[in-house]
Automatic annotation (TrEMBL):
GO MF annotations, alphabetized: aspartic-type endopeptidase activity
Superkingdom in the source lineage: Bacteria
Transmembrane region(s): 6-24, 31-51, 71-92, 104-125
Domain Prepilin type IV endopeptidase peptidase: 2-84
One protein family per Pfam: Peptidase_A24
InterPro entries: Prepilin_IV_endopep_pep (IPR000045)
Name of protein: Prepilin type IV endopeptidase peptidase domain-containing protein
GO cellular component: membrane
Keywords: Membrane, Transmembrane, Transmembrane helix
């Protein structure tokens, strides 16, 4: 069986790099507060079974690197890309009669794309 796992080593590397970026750009305190708040909110979503633990960690560590001005757009973009992914998965299930969506939605894809885009925007906006 194939598992959708975000390795902890990746999360640790992003945490260190995100912390360094926020210190360098001067938004460490605000980003840390957003990180803590995000963790509390998404931990509740994980506890209720709405999202995977790796997704929670990934979403939260990227908040350290992204400028606080862009955090709302970050979460909106994750939602938009996630919705697009759901539509594609449903279409795939209907076309090929494979029930992939019941295994869950791999949110690592929209999280990664959103994080990369907003990280680049944050770095260029400095």
């Amino acid at each position: 069986m194939r598992y959708r796992i975000i390795p902890n080593i990746i999360i640790k590397i992003i945490f260190v790099l995100g912390t360094a970026i926020s210190l360098y750009q001067g938004h460490f305190i605000n980003s840390s507060l957003i990180f803590i708040f995000s963790f509390i909110v998404f931990f509740c979503f994980w506890y209720l079974g709405f999202i995977g633990g790796g997704d929670v960690k990934a979403i939260c560590v990227f908040t350290l690197a992204i400028k606080p001005d862009f955090i709302a757009f970050y979460f909106i973009l994750i939602g938009i890309l996630g919705a697009m992914q759901v539509v594609i998965m449903i279409a795939y299930d209907c076309l090929f009669k494979k029930v992939q969506i019941k295994k869950g939605i791999p949110y690592g894809i929209p999280i990664s794309i959103s994080s990369f885009m907003l990280l680049i925007i944050s770095l260029l906006a400095n």
